[in-house]
């Protein structure tokens, strides 16, 4: 089982009998990571993820599914999943991807707040302000903005962002990066000032705007 694989890798694991119990556990206990199967009894994994994100916006979540539909992957990521693993998968791959999500989460929470121009991001409280006003971001938007601001001024390739923000196994023809860049622009770019800039043919960068 997934729980056995986690224990073999040296992690402690708690199993939930169904989706409803998973919601209660994930919002009550202080877990480092939640792994959800899309096809959970009583309440499906997508609904569980949505409920968790409302109460624990920065809790790392990995989705598992035997369904290979691209729409399912996109849906899971839009709801805030940190990674989406398709079944069947090998234990080594699973362990590596769990480690990658935990590593990204640890890096984000250990970083101090970042101020770049009129944008401030605080990983500890998972808050963002723009020109002094709070900005509401989804967990995925937050991770993308944080990674861009940590590397402010550097042009980051699409493949780099897919690996760093969404996980280690992503289709290079996915439009998820462009989609989330457009979300950030709607919330941060005003009056002709662009914070999230596309450098055609190279990638994306964050620019400070005073």
Can you describe this structure?
- The protein is α/β, with parallel strands linked by helices and 210 residues long.
- The chain has two domains: 2-108, Rossmann fold, CATH 3.40.50; 112-206, Arc Repressor Mutant, subunit A (Orthogonal Bundle).
- The chain has eight helices and nine strands.
- It has helices at 2-8, 19-28, 45-55, 70-78, 91-110, 139-150, 158-166, 176-188, and strands spanning 34-37, 61-65, 83-86, 114-116, 119-122, 127-130, 133-135, 196-199, 203-206.
- The strands form three sheets. It has a four-stranded antiparallel sheet, with helices on one face. Strands 1-2-3 form a three-stranded parallel sheet, with helices on both faces.
- β2, α4 and β3 (83-86) form a beta-alpha-beta unit.
- The protein is globular.
- The termini are far apart.
Give the topology, please:
Blueprint lengths: L1 H7 L10 H10 L5 E4 L7 H11 L5 E5 L4 H9 L4 E4 L4 H20 L3 E3 L2 E4 L4 E4 L2 E3 L3 H12 L7 H9 L9 H13 L7 E4 L3 E4 L4
Parallel strand pairs: 1-2, 2-3
Antiparallel strand pairs: 4-5, 5-6, 6-7, 8-9
Helix pairs in contact: 2-3, 6-7, 6-8
